[in-house]
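agent> Task received from the user: take the single chain below, predict its 3D structure, and emit structure tokens. No templates, no multimer pairing.
agent> Plan: (1) validate residues, (2) run structure prediction, (3) serialize to tokens, (4) report one or two observations.
agent> Step 1 OK, no nonstandard residues flagged.
tool_call: predict_structure(input=
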Amino acid sequence: MSEVKVVSPPPMNTMEQLLAVQNAISKIEELVQDANIVLLKIRALLLAFPSQLTSSKTAFIDKDALKVLELSSLS
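)
tool_result: status=success, residues=75
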């Protein structure tokens, strides 16, 4: 078995830690917003052809889009 070396991050003061957390949260928020845009575009494309979708599939898509919107509004 080979040894695993773990390199600890450089020590940060409280302000640096808070800034790092804030940056991480901002990046996550951007990713959620981008995912939300993609899902809304997919939903719009799928709803543009309602004759090819059953009503149950359309309702399922709407529920997922609403969940994403609710999650993005919480952040």
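agent> Step 4: summary for the user.
The two ends are 44 Å apart (CA to CA).
agent> Done.
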